[in-house]
Structure formats: C-alpha cells, structure tokens
Amino acid sequence: MAFDGNFTHALTEELQFLVRGKINKIQQMDNSSLLFKMRAEGKNHQLLISSHPMYARFHLTEQKYEFPFDPPMFSRILRKHIEGGFITEIKQLGNDRQVHIHIRAINDIGDDIERILILEIMGRHSNIILTDENYKIIDGIKHLTPNNNVRTIMPGFTYEGPPTGRKLNPRTEELNDLPKFIDFNAGKLKRQILANIEGFSPVFIDEVESRVKYFKSDNIVPAIKETLVKARNIQPVYYDLKKPVFYFTPLEHLGEPDKVYGTLSELLDEYYHRRYQISAIRQKSSDYLQVIEREHDKTVRKIANLEADLQEAAEKDKYQKYGELITAYMHSIKNYQESAVVMDYYTNEEIKIPLDKQLSPAENAQRYYNMYNKLKNREKVAEEQLRLAHMDVEYFSNLLHQMENITTEDEVEEVRQELIEEKIIKERKRGKKKKKVNKIQLHEFETSNGLPVFVGKNNKQNDYLTNRKAQNNHLWFHTKDIPGSHVVIAHNASDISEDDILEAAMLAAFHSKAGQSAGVPVDYTEIKHVKNIPGTKPGFVTYSEQATVLVDPDPEKVKQMKKE
Questions:
Q1: Which end of the chain is more exposed for a tag (fewer CB within 10 A), N or C?
Q2: Angstrom distances, CA of residue 297 to CA of 280, 292, 391, 426
C-alpha cells in the first residue's frame, strides 16, 4: 500500500465538501476506530477515522459496523464536545500524514466553542486527539504518559506534534533546497530523499526515479516536480502484486493497474474493510485458538508421559523371569536374604535377584508376578492411550492449521460448535434465544475446463463436502500425510482430464499446512473409496485406490480459479 503524505493530500482535497457539514452522531467500533455520521451537501455520509496500528486511515465508508453496547470513554467525550457541531476546516499539516479537523460546536451552557480533532496516520504510533482552540488536549484515543521520553498525550497537556524531525515540504519552494541535503557520493539516494522530504513513500520515489533512470544533482528536483504535476490527475488505482499497492494516481513503473476506483474513499473502503473484518474475526477466534493450543500442548506432554510408561513397562519380562527363577530355586533360598544368586536356565548364566528380606521366598516370587501383571496391564493401556493421543495431536494440529485460515464469522462459529460437540469447551448459556447457525458455505473454484471444485476449510466443511455434498463418482483430493482441506471435483471422475486433476491437487496443496512449500504430494481417489473412521475425532478418514501427484501451490492460479 502507499498511504503516504501525497495520498493524504489528495484525500484531504477529496473530503473538502465535508466542510460546513454537520456531525450528527459519533460511534466507536473498537479501541482504535470511530464512525462519524454526517450531513453535508444535502446527503448523509459516514466518515471513518482509525488509529489502528496496521489499518490507520480516514475516509468515507458505505460499510456497516457493529458497535459495543456500552460506548467507550473516548466516544463519550467526543459526543460531549463535538456531536452536533459543524466542520469549519479540514487541513493537512505540510505534506505529512497529519490532518487537523476544525469543528465549531456549542457547549452545555450554549456558548460557541472551537474544537480540533487531530489525526496522526503513523502506523503503530497512529492516534486521534481532541484539543481546544489553543491545542490544549481534551483527550486522545491513545494516551502517552508524562514519563514518555518523546511527548505527552494526556488531558490537560498542550498538544505537541510527533517528533518526526525537520523535513522539506515538496509542495513549497523548500523543495529547491533538496540537493543541499543529499550526498550523491554516499549512495542510498532513495533513503536520503525519504529522510529529507516530507510525506514521500518508497513507491513514489520509485516512480520519480523511473523518469530519470538515476538521480543527479541537476535532475532530482525537476523529476520530483514533474511527477507531482502529473499526480494532479487523481485516479485511485490498485495493483494486485505480491505486496499489494494502492495509490491516488497511476504509477507508470508498475504498469497497468488491476483496478481503478471512482474515489479515494471507495478504494480505501474496499481495501481496508476486508482486512478489518479478518482482523476482527481473528480477534473473535483468539480465545478458541488458545484453547486448541493448550489442548495440543497438553496432548504432546501426555504422549511423553505415556512413552515413559512404556519404557518402564518394558521391564515386565524381567520381573516375570525373577518370579519364575525364585519359584524354581525356592528350596535353596532362605528367609531374610537380601538377594539370591541362581542359574538362569534361559541363558545358562548366573543371575542375581534382589529380594525383600521381610518376605518369604514364595512371597518374593508372588511380588514379582504382581509387578509383571501390573506392568503388563499398564503397557496395554498405555499403548491404546498413546494411539489415541497421536490421533489427538494430529487432530489439534489440523485445527491449528484451520484457525490460521479463518476468514469469516461463520467459520469461527463452525469451529466453536465443533469444540462444544467434542466437549473441549462448554457451551455458554445464552438465554432462550440461540445464535442462528448459517448453512455451511463451501469455497468454490473452477478449473480451466470449467469443472466445479469445492474446498472445505474446517472439519465441519470437510465432513459436509465429503459425506453429503459429493457423489460417489466425484474425485476427492487431500495432501498426503499433511494436515489440509478436503477438495472435490464435482464431476464424473472418468471424464476428468489430467489438467483438471493437477489444478485440483494444487488447490489441495495450497489449502494445506504445506501451502508455502514446493513439490507437495497430494493423493486423489473417488469419493466411494473414502470412509470415515468410527470413534475418531472429526476430519479423520481412510481411503484406498488412490494415486499421488506432486504439485507446487500457486497463489495467482488460486485467485484465477476462485469463483465469487
């Protein structure tokens, strides 16, 4: 992405129509994001402002958000001071990612007041701060205490801007002084430009450099000015690269954009809303993730203990031999002996057997028989428990992989229901009204030949796909001995081409724990050869008549195959 000072400049200009607009309602979605419901130019608008450490931004939004029943303190303060007020000015500070929104409102006793809402878009240091007309802080969505060695953001203190250092504003004559600050013999010119120019991002510097091939003292300023002039053509664009990039104007060095938007707000709304949703979903699923991690680690420790039990049980045959030898030589063993040396007729060698001198020879023999039987029973139980524990570890490993790929609230609910059904967590009493469980939605793809391919992303989806959705003659895929999704080509297996098989196998590899690897082995067979394993946890199946192919996961190909 490239939400830099240049982008902020363009966005501030786009939102100028909100000046003289009225703030009708203020709501706070979480501890970093606010929604202003406004009326401007005869229409209703929603202005979203966020100080999220990864998704800090401000723009108009058409999305619907959930709000906590009890409003957070910062939103209450904003309501008291600026709800019902009118925006009088929206201005950017220099060319930085700082915006000051001036608001005229009326206080509790009917006097006109001015308030300034300060937006600082600075990654994890982002903040939203409310001050009075003299920049005395009323409150901030994030506090910096007085012992902070940078600045203080607390009620009652005078606002100080972020300590970003003195930089040149490229939209003023200051830009002409740039060559004085650049050491052209020191190298790393892009880094030097970023260190001395306000609001530039690496992607913008790359665009400037593409015009001149390489920077010199006499071309660096003209190239920046030329690029800024061309950037007056506001055309929000998105480039779907390995690391996605959006900008307020086309970037020639990146080629043709993958998508063009009507406004900057539309671009930001689409780009960030999905990421915000995923972040919120991950937050909701974090409790379940901790439960699964705890159960996984507990089972790993259980396996270690069971293996120790089996090592101890390996001594059982020795104790059985001691009992037999004591019985065979009982006539030569006297009471109160601490040990007995006898001939081992299994090896024809002498062997020393420890004895309990408080017991008779017969009682010592019985003691060893009891120890043998006890360890024999423990070994049998431990072997069965170890078998189940290994299956549990595989189950929890699979769940952990599934949790990494959760993208919808329905998937969170499906995992929750599974944990309840497996008695891993208890169902909370929610009163009479139960949460509606939506129909299971599979992820649908399409091969190059137009065949439908379905992918399950958790055990409930896998179970539904394999046992209910698919037909006996459909082709089923799964990574070989690797946690992953069930994948099915919903078509007669005899009519499926090798290309279709390789594409579906690639999807199975991509949606597995080996999704970042190469040469992933994927088994495939007809659904009629896939069977559930009775008495096991969800997701376990056995299959036969399979073939195996090696494939490389391809994210770009997955995108192409995905059906909206």
A1: C
A2: 26, 9, 14, 20
On whether the CB atoms of residues 210 and 226 are closer than 8 A, the answer is no
Q: Please list the pLDDT of the chain residue by residue as tens digits (564 residues).
A: 689 999 999 999 999 999 999 999 999 988 899 999 999 999 999 999 999 988 899 999 998 887 888 889 999 999 999 999 999 999 999 999 999 999 999 988 888 999 999 999 998 899 999 999 999 999 999 999 888 778 999 999 999 998 878 899 999 999 999 998 888 888 788 889 999 999 999 999 999 998 888 888 888 999 999 999 999 989 999 998 888 899 999 999 999 999 999 999 999 999 988 787 777 777 778 888 889 999 999 999 999 999 988 888 888 889 999 999 999 998 899 888 899 999 988 888 999 999 998 999 999 999 999 999 999 998 899 888 998 899 888 888 888 888 877 777 788 888 888 888 888 888 776 554 555 556 788 899 999 999 999 999 889 899 999 999 999 999 999 999 898 999 999 999 999 999 999 999 999 999 998 988 999 999 999 999 999 888 777 878 999 999 999 999 998 899 899 986
- pTM (2 decimals)? 0.63
Closest to 451 in 3D by CA, of 485, 486, 484, 498:
498
Sign for the CA dihedral angle at 39, 41, 46, 50 comes to: negative
Cβ neighbors of 218 (< 8 A, separation 6 or more) are none
Measured distance CA(412)–CA(418) in Å, rounded: 10
